[in-house]
Structure formats: C-alpha cells, structure tokens
Specification:
Length: about 240
C-alpha cells in the first residue's frame, strides 16, 4: 500500500529531489560505511579520512584510496542507479544529491548530480589548489604529484572538513523546492547531508525513504519503505 502511495506522489510531482548514500551502491558490490561489512568496521576513519591523517602519513591514506578506486573501477551501476537516471528524464525539475564518492550515478546516465562529499576520481593539489579528474588505476607513484610538483590529495570531504559551499547551497535549494524528497540507502547519521530531508519537509515536501533497515529518519518520513534500493526504486520510478 505504502509503495503504491509513494509511487503516486512521485508520479504527480513536478519537482523531485533525491538524496543517496552508500546503500544504493551496495548491490553493485561496494561496501557501505556502517553496519555489517561496513568500511568503518575494519578501518578507523581518524587514521584514513581526516586532514591530520593525511598530514601524518599521506602514503598510507593514498594506499587506502587507491584500493577503493580499484574496487570501484570493477563495479557497474545497478537497477537503483538506473531507475533514478530514468526518473530524471521524466521530471521538469529533478536534482540528485549524493553523499557517494563513486561515479555510478553518472555511469547509469544521471546528468544533474550534486556530489556533497566529493569524488574518488578527482584530485586536488595541496600546493597550487588545482583540482582535476584523474581516472588512473592503479595510481603510481603514491602519493601522486601535480604538474607543479605539489602533492595531490583525493578531492573528497574528510571528517572535520566543510562541505563544498556551492554544492551544499544547491542541495539546500533543491530540498526547499522539492514536492517529493526521496532518500535512498543512507543511514541519515552524517550531517549536514542528513538535515536535507528535514529542510524539505519544513518546506512542504513529502519525504519517502528507501532503506534495508530503520534509520534516524524512518519515524519522521511520510513513507519509509524497507528493502533493497535496486528492487524498490524501479517500482517507484518507472514511467
Ligand atoms: P552508511 O554506511 O552510514 O549507511 C548505509 C545505509 O544503506 C544503511 O542505512 C543501510 O541499511 C543501507 N543499505 C545497505 N544496503 C542497502 C540496499 N541494498 N538498499 C537500500 N539500503 C541499503 O552510508 P552513508 O549514509 O552513505 O562520509 O554514510 C554517510 C557518510 O558517512 C558517507 O558519505 C561517508 C561516511 O563517513 C564521508 O566520507 C565524508
């Protein structure tokens, strides 16, 4: 019943925004961060994903990102990614906001994507500040170097760092304007991304969650659907 209602709301909305997290890429074979098999079960974020960790041991941090790039390069988008790319085609106003640093949304055909936490496939120079796409797998040498000679870092957001301002402003704007705000595959624990559904709700959006399990958002969402995003999103978002 809930799924039929959610589908109807999405069908009727002209303006839809979507927030995705690691769960949407789980069926593509990528590990999530929390929960069983999550990255933060085997690795300590403070040793790998903070500016301090990079200053202490850039090679170690790069080895971890280089391993993640190799894993990602072997993965394909799944039915959840594809469903969102199709939904974008149907809506006059559509914004996909992702916390994921993978590129599976792009590869599934999504066009308008806000990467709140940066990208595994971009690098930024610690000296000249230049940011660029880098798809070399494996990376050699580590740490990689910029043409200016400076050390490159992954262009991702680490713990303790601010989100890219323009991306966050655009995401807030999309949340404010959305008639339906769909949240898929995120534990809704990491702010400020986790605030976006609340902003949307305050501005009158219907909030629909898709997740394998209950999250911080579940009791507040208008509809919370339990299951795999690769199975539920195609049912919600098909033409
Ligand atoms: P989490 O690992 O915190 O949460 C993943 C969520 O996906 C969980 O709620 C799972 O129940 C759900 N899930 C798993 N498989 C699923 C499936 N097949 N279908 C639907 N749901 C599924 O990942 P995020 O919420 O993305 O930040 O984590 C947020 C941020 O915390 C990440 O962007 C990263 C991390 O630290 C940075 O690195 C800055």
């Amino acid at each position: 019943m809930d799924i039929a209602q959610a589908r109807e709301w999405i069908e009727q909305a002209r303006s839809v925004a979507v927030l995705t997290g690691a769960g949407i890429s789980a069926e593509s074979g990528l590990p999530t961060f929390r929960g069983p098999g999550g990255l933060w079960k085997s690795f300590r974020p403070e040793e790998l994903a903070t500016p301090g960790a990079f200053a202490r041991d850039p090679k170690l941090v790069w080895e971890w990102y280089s391993w993640r790039r190799e894993v990602h390069s072997r993965c394909e988008p799944n039915r959840g990614h594809v469903a969102l790319a199709k939904l974008e085609q149907l809506k006059p106003q559509f914004t996909l906001i992702t916390q994921n640093v993978d590129s599976l949304h792009e590869r599934a055909g999504s066009r308008k994507i806000i990467h709140l936490h940066g990208s595994l496939w971009r690098v930024r120079c610690m000296s000249c500040g230049k940011e660029e796409q880098n798809e070399q797998v494996p990376l050699d040498p580590l740490p990689p170097r910029c043409a200016c000679g400076g050390m490159l870092r992954p262009a991702v957001v680490w713990f303790g760092e601010a989100l890219p301002q323009a991306a966050m402003a655009e995401a807030m704007q999309a949340a404010t304007a959305a008639e339906v705000f769909l949240v898929a595959g995120t534990s809704s624990m990491v702010y400020p991304a986790a605030a976006l559904p609340h902003v949307a709700m305050q501005h009158g959006a219907r909030v629909i969650e898709v997740n394998l399990e209950a999250t911080e958002l579940s009791s507040l969402a208008h509809i919370s659907l339990r299951g795999k995003s690769g199975e539920i999103l195609p049912q919600l978002a098909s033409p």
